[in-house]
């Protein structure tokens, strides 16, 4: 079954409220949608989220790479050669992981639609109900505590708390949130590279002494500081997770061989798509290191694709896919329902290109 055309569409989606981390403040997002049309009319869809601060990928860069580098490798090729096509995409250029991810998602979606199977079935899994978290932006301790309380009343039982703006204030922020939500709520802390290694140890040890139980601390130090991650991990009891330090399968091996972290956070926009995400989860499994799947500030298509990956891999045990809940326009989302993600039994990722109101 030949791939006939690959077309792109860009969409700006406003956020309901600003999303603030130690790295950036976001008020709207722009996503690039990929439509991969097969000769029988089936359309596979994918999307990419430009995050220059994290991946280096811009909207124009993503469009250019897909149009001029990736699409020519796929047009007129047989989609039944899926693994060979995926390899060609990964080998086509250095970096550009967001563009590669969008095209991979469209390929997997088109292929599973062609076979008439949900993507998670194609990938060999059947966890169709996933427990999601919700993020609290970095803000004053009082505002963060109020927001956390509100989210718990809405049904969330896992919160991701963004910090990394100022060490002393971060302790106050986390203490205020814990006080507001009580002891049973799972708190995942994300410093987004905002601390130095010794500072991170001081902060986390202080929270441990005050018996603020934290499920994990994500990326306490700079992405390139693998020794710093290891230093933090070795000086605290709280599990440490890599996010911005992990893009490729080789990054995963380096982190795991160095015993630098307790957990990995996999995102399709960093790995360059689904196949590397699955490979990283399997590599981590052989080191007994569990994985979370997360996303950038992305529209539903790529986030739902990430949920299919999570549904199919036993070593992805944590879900951080709240991005669509921040958007004014859910881009046809019937899957991500607050604290629960329910994947449909429709073929592919379960989203039809017709529901996007974009002509292909
Ligand atoms: Mg993170």
UniProtKB/TrEMBL annotation:
Amino acids binding Mg(2+) = 190, 218, 243
- Specify the superkingdom: Bacteria
* Enzyme class label: isomerase
Molecular function (GO) terms listed? Answer: magnesium ion binding; racemase and epimerase activity, acting on amino acids and derivatives
- Cofactor note, please? Binds 1 Mg(2+) ion per subunit.
The entry assigns this protein to a family as follows: Belongs to the mandelate racemase/muconate lactonizing enzyme family.
Q: What is this protein called?
A: Dipeptide epimerase
């Amino acid at each position: 079954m030949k791939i006939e055309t690959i077309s792109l569409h860009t969409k700006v989606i406003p956020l309901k409220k600003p999303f603030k981390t130690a790295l950036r403040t976001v008020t709207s997002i722009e996503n690039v949608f990929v439509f991969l049309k097969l000769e029988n009319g089936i359309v596979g869809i994918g999307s990419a989220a430009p995050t220059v601060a994290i991946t280096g990928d811009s909207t124009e860069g993503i469009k250019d790479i897909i149009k001029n580098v990736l699409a020519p490798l796929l047009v007129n090729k047989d989609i039944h050669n899926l693994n060979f096509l995926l390899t060609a995409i990964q080998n086509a250029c250095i970096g550009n992981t967001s563009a590669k991810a969008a095209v991979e998602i469209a390929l997997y979606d088109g292929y599973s639609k062609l076979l008439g199977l949900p993507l998670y079935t194609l990938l060999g899994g059947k966890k169709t109900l996933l427990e999601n978290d919700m993020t609290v932006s970095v803000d004053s301790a009082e505002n963060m505590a109020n927001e956390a309380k509100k989210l718990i009343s809405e049904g969330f039982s896992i919160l991701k708390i963004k910090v990394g703006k100022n060490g002393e204030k971060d302790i106050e922020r986390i203490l205020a949130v814990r006080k507001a939500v009580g002891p049973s709520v799972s708190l995942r802390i994300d410093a987004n590279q905002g601390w130095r290694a010794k500072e991170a140890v001081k902060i986390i040890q202080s929270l441990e002494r005050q018996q603020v139980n934290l499920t994990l601390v994500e990326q306490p130090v700079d992405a390139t500081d693998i020794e710093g991650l290891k230093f933090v991990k070795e000086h605290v009891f709280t599990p440490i997770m890599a996010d911005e330090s992990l893009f490729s399968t080789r990054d995963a091996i380096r982190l795991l061989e160095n015993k630098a972290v307790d957990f990995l956070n996999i995102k399709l926009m960093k790995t360059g798509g689904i196949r590397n995400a699955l490979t990283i989860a399997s590599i981590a499994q052989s080191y007994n290191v569990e994985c979370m799947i997360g996303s950038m500030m992305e529209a539903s298509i790529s986030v739902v694709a990430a949920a299919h990956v999570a549904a199919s891999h036993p070593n992805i045990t944590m879900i951080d896919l709240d991005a669509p809940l921040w958007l004014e326009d859910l881009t046809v989302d019937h899957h991500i329902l607050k604290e629960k993600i329910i994947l449909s039994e429709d073929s592919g990722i379960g989203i039809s290109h017709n529901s996007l109101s974009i002509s292909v």
